[in-house]
Amino acid sequence: MRVDVEYSPVGEGLGMSEFWLYVWMRRVAVIAAHVIAVGLTVLISLLSRPGTSLFSWHPVCMSIAYLLCLTEGILLFSPEGTPFCFKARKGKVRLHWFIQALVILAAATGVGFMIASKNVSERPHLATWHSLLGVGTLAATVLQAACGICLLFPKLLKLSPPRLKLYHATCGLVVYLLATVTVVSAMFSDWFQATVKGVVWYAFLLLPLFPALVIMNQITNAYLPRKKITT
Question: Where in this chain does the record put each Cytochrome b561 domain (predicted)?
Fold first, then answer.
């Protein structure tokens, strides 16, 4: 009896039992990435105490945009599973577009609250690394969305759809890693360090890195050459 199993080059050289253990570990990692994305968004929103000031809405909106929506918009295509019920790729693509639109909307709203807050307090704009990274991340997000639109018109760019998808996925990974760096830099802000201290602060610092690793693994495995083993 021949059983062909398609797998990532990462699993090459493993026996069947070790390979399936590796597959289940990947599934657990994806579930953990979902949990971290939702959990961090909820915790940061609670710590921000939305409504107490104009600034309080900034971390809420940005965590919803980048910790939650951007993460879920990419994990939607994970072969290890997703909380969404769509199985057809067409449905996933449409949901991906909707989620990415929410990313831009929530991020732009968060930036608007930050600008309003600094105008009221008469503090300078773009005075920290976090703010500079944030502007760069938002600009990269908008450009990435524009690149996504190009997938609808591949003939105009005279590129094959697979190549366009590769470019889109690669740029998406760059945007996500940039967003992760921006989120981590926020942990060093005066507001966050005054709100969260001790061991908990280190947990907040490290947790955003895990979904980034999962997404990096997802994208690289999706576009690296695959092989088959036969038993």
Answer: 24-226
